[in-house]
Amino acid sequence: MARLYAQVCTVAFLILGIGGWFVGDAGHVVHHRAQGNVDGMVLHLTYARDVLDLVLLAGFVAVGFVVGPRAGRAILGVIGVVLVGLAALGFAIGDTAAGTRSLAGLHFPLAINVFDLVVGVLAVITALGPAEEEAASG
Fold first, then answer.
1. Which of 24, 45, 132, 138 would bridge 35 by S-S if both were Cys, CB 3.0 to 4.6 A apart?
2. pTM of the prediction?
3. How many domains would you assign to the chain?
4. Residues 6 or more apart whose Cβ sits within 8 Å of residue 51
């Protein structure tokens, strides 16, 4: 299950990581609104967040396509804890339409916080579940 979840997340983080480079950086404010958004959805993506998403993408690729089940579950657990931590930090800090609140180049709008929380919790649950070989034999 961890391998399948990581493969799905690979697609999501590929879109988020690569797509983030094309939507701009929330550090640029135009008409009192930070950039880095997709249409009407306030994402406030920054280049720092894009790099973080690409690092997480590398972890998902490793779990989904390269490493074995045991190492994959460990990596997926770490990724999940990082994402849940980012979500908790994001809910604590928050963000404004002008993108005035950030930490280490990362902005924390509601959409990103919810995404991080859902993906992170599911990653932790998947990492704690039975390994593929255990599930197949039992």
1. 24
2. 0.83
3. 1
4. none
